[in-house]
Amino acid sequence: MRQILERASKNIGGDFYSANEIIHYFKEKEIDKDWSLCEIPRTETSKWTHNYHRYPAKFIPQLVEKLMDEYVMNVNSHINDPFMGCGTTIVSALSRGYKASGTDINHIAYLITKVKSTPIEPTLLKSKVNQFLKQLSFLEDNQISIFTPSIEPLIPSKYRDRIDYWFTEDNKYDLGVILRAIYNEENINIRDFYLVAFSHILKNCSLWLQSSTKPTRDLNKKPSRPYFVLKTHLMKMLKGNEDFYNFIPDKVKINLNEYLNISLQDARKQSVDNETVDLIITSSPYVTSYEYADLHQLSDIWLYFTDDLTEYKTKFIGTSYKKYDNINLSSLIAKNIVSQMSLVHKKKAKEIEAFYIDMEEVFNESYRILKKGGRCCFVIGNTKYKGIDVLNAEVFAESLQYAGFILDRIIKREIPSKILPQKRDEKTGRFASNSKANCEAYPVEYIIIGLKE
Ligand SMILES: C[S@@+](CC[C@H](N)C(=O)[O-])C[C@H]1O[C@@H](n2cnc3c(N)ncnc32)[C@H](O)[C@@H]1O
User: Fold this and answer.
1) Ligand 1 pocket test target in 104, 213, 369, 447 with most atoms within 8 Å of CB
2) 280 and 319 housed in the same domain
3) Which of 91-105, 149-163, 274-288 has the highest mean predicted lDDT (pLDDT)?
4) Is position 114 within any domain?
5) Which residues neighbour 335 within 8 Å (Cβ) at sequence distance 6 or greater?
6) Neighbours of 376 (CB within 10 A)
7) CA-CA distances (angstroms) from residue 381 to 16, 175, 415?
8) Mean pLDDT, residues 266-285
9) pLDDT category, 440, cuts 50, 70, 90?
10) Is there a smaller number of Cβ atoms within 10 Å at the N or the C end of the chain?
């Protein structure tokens, strides 16, 4: 925001940027090519443990690394991510020997982050994985004989109908056997490592349309057989673990508990002390984007993360399952978007309002935990719904000021096509395949950086 500061001091001489100034600034803002990071090969974006589990709208680690290069001032820094997803920020911070803390409300996100940021001694892990696969190898060719170990499949009964909906009989049996064998493992870190592999293969082994992030059934799909994909994926994870184990500083490996503080919690209330964080690097959910609880339902039903899926969904920020009454927004830009939207789609307007209300609380919480001189970096994209521009980035920029931050900088970056979230059709507001969409919902995104003075 240095340019804004200059312009504003010429124009109004103040530190607080009005809604109009912010809108104007964003209209003129050009793409910072240095931040698009388009040329980085997949081998690099999926290095270390970053290849453990797919995750919608995840960062590439190089984006986090670039922000840390720019803003981390000392070797004992503490990095935080209130929406840690699959833990890109957390893993990147640990890899440099910084303290890392974060939250996510999503059970599978917490599990993935925990496993990705807990390197295991490679020789031990390799021998455990080999024994584990050996014990299950009878699943390889369906060779059941009198020598086959008797492993009673574990298929959670609570969600039996959902499991029946997504999985064939054969795969249900195999997955149930694998899950039972996983829970027989006594070493918790190794058990969780297997659980992440198990969760990752569920999509391939189900009738979930492979090309879709959303829950769509493909009755023509020939699902992969679980043992085969599990074995392949575990081999990849072994390599990722070894690379991470060898890279991460010894001080972190030996005292992981001192360096890692993650929890399954709401971003609005983190278990992090006041003024202890140097830098927040995060990307929030979007209101018109993914329903994370729906996207991870295969893992939720198999790993039995929740008793009540409906209630669970309302805990997510940016969900369509939530609305508030009688709570006021501070951001004028947000209020304007909500009132425009309510003319064309009342329900969506309430959802968007709830999202911005929740995010204002996240900004307050971010302010609380940051040290003076610390920064928060929120990565966010804008979208359009039913012809109305949903200017998330502009709202975030304005709202951060209400939380007490000085707007420090705004970066506009292209999203490399391989991680581009799905686009919406301009007329219907529905998701379309990237080639069919006539408007690009997220061709670029912004990094909104606030400074706590
Ligand atoms: C865009 S994703 C973050 C992706 C992450 N940057 C990564 O690299 O994997 C947003 C995350 O916000 C989480 N989330 C939604 N509501 C939340 C809440 N109330 N508290 C904490 N996390 C929440 C979702 O589960 C999702 O993982």
Assistant:
1) 104
2) yes
3) 91-105
4) no
5) 329
6) 27
7) 22, 37, 10
8) 97
9) very low
10) C
pLDDT tops 60 at residue 377: yes
Q: Are residues 127 and 167 in the same domain?
A: yes
Same domain assignment for residues 19 and 35: yes
The contacts of residue 411 (CB under 8 Å, 6+ apart) are 32, 35, 446, 447, 449
Considering 228, 244, 260, which residue would you say is the last residue of a domain? 244
Atom of ligand 1 nearest to the CA of 89: 8
Specify the CATH number for the domain of residue 259.
3.40.50.150
Structure token digits, residue 107: 């059970």
Full-model pTM: 0.91
| Greatest Cα-to-Cα distance within the chain, rounded to the nearest angstrom | 85
Residue 151: give the domain boundaries: 122-244
Please indicate, yes or no, whether residues 158 and 268 belong to a single structural domain of this protein. Answer: no
**What is the arithmetic mean of pLDDT over 43-52?**
96
> Are residues 239 and 181 part of one domain?
yes
Statement: residue 8 has pLDDT above 70: no
Q: How many domains does the chain have?
A: 2
Has residue 117 been placed in a domain? no
Q: Is residue 344 part of a domain?
A: yes
Query: Looking at ligand 1, which residue's alpha carbon is closest to its atom 27?
Result: 85
Looking at the fold, whether 99 and 23 belong to one and the same domain comes out as yes
Amino acid identity, position 183: Y
Q: Are strands 99-104 and 260-264 parallel, antiparallel or unpaired?
A: parallel
User: Does any ligand 1 atom lie closer than 6 A to the CB of residue 262?
Assistant: no
Which residue's CA is the closest to the ligand 1 atom numbered 13?
A: 83
Average pLDDT, the chain: 90
Last residue of a domain, one of 223, 244, 265: 244
Residue 270 and residue 193 share a domain: no
Contact between 88 and 249 under an 8 Å Cβ cutoff? The reply is no
Residues 346 and 422 in one domain: yes
For a substitution probing ligand 1, which of 52, 105, 296, 356 has the most ligand atoms within 8 Å of its CB?
A: 105
pLDDT at residue 200 above 80? yes
Nearest to 367 by CA among 415, 431, 126, 359: 359
Give Cα separations from 50 to 87, 239, 304, 341 (angstroms). 8, 11, 24, 38
Structural domain includes residue 299: no
Nearest to 80 by CA among 275, 291, 296, 286: 275
Percent of the chain with pLDDT over 70: 89
Is any atom of ligand 1 closer than 6 Å to the C-beta of 95? Answer: no
In the predicted structure, residue 48 carries a pLDDT above the cut 60:
yes
207 close to 221: Cβ distance less than 8 angstroms: yes
Does the structure show a pLDDT above 70 at 116?
yes
Residue nearest to atom 5 of ligand 1 (CA): 85
